[in-house]
Amino acid sequence: MLGGVRYGMADAAVDAPEIPGAPYDLEFFFDPGCPFAWLTSRWATRVAELRDLRIGWRFISLRMVNEARDDLPEGYKSQQVKGTEFLRICAATRASVGNDAVAALYTGWGEALWNQNRGDRPYRDARREIVEGIDIEKLLVDAGADPGLIAVAQTEDCDALIRAETDLALARAGNDLGTPIITYGPPDGPSYFGPVISVMPADDEALELYDAIRTMSRFGWYSELKRTNRAPLDLPLITG
Description:
Elements: E1 26-30, H1 35-51, E2 55-59, H2 62-65, H3 74-96, H4 99-114, H5 123-133, H6 136-142, H7 159-173, E3 181-184, E4 191-193, H8 203-216, H9 236-239
Parallel strand pairs: 1-2
Antiparallel strand pairs: 1-3, 3-4
């Protein structure tokens, strides 16, 4: 599974608080370390702009999703730790400033990471170096938040919230999933893993894809349409 596999079903009823400013047209669960979530988030953000929709940003930690696994490479585990550390900052920012600040933080992080050309460096080396060089304090300032919130990354103060939202995503969409997960018409609307896309579509295609998903989501008995053959992700960090 892209992003990871969770063993054991999440509880059907999960106690996760509403996002400040709810209700939203979509709720987007993201882990900042997942390139698939990043590209899909750009699609969802553009659709929201074109259709005047509101996105509520929620958290799903791949470190928590995969914590029962002992077969992951150390480099992959360290990436997931970094992702959870940034989610802690996002959670503290959402509590203090609101949902829009999370959108700004995630956008700043993603542009600083995925839009960088790795050149001749191996992907994992380039990724690690770029992540370590991201100026998170500046991202916080640009998002209208206190740069001191960076300290939250090294605490577990927000972990209960992140775990609750991770469990909420999996309770809504199913347990053998990674990121991204999107809920359409939350809290009771359908939730799906994906769409997994390899390029950022043009506006007309972005809307066509969104409408197709919304059409399929009308059928409560529909669950999955999938293929594992796909084009490489069109992100400079990956393509070089």
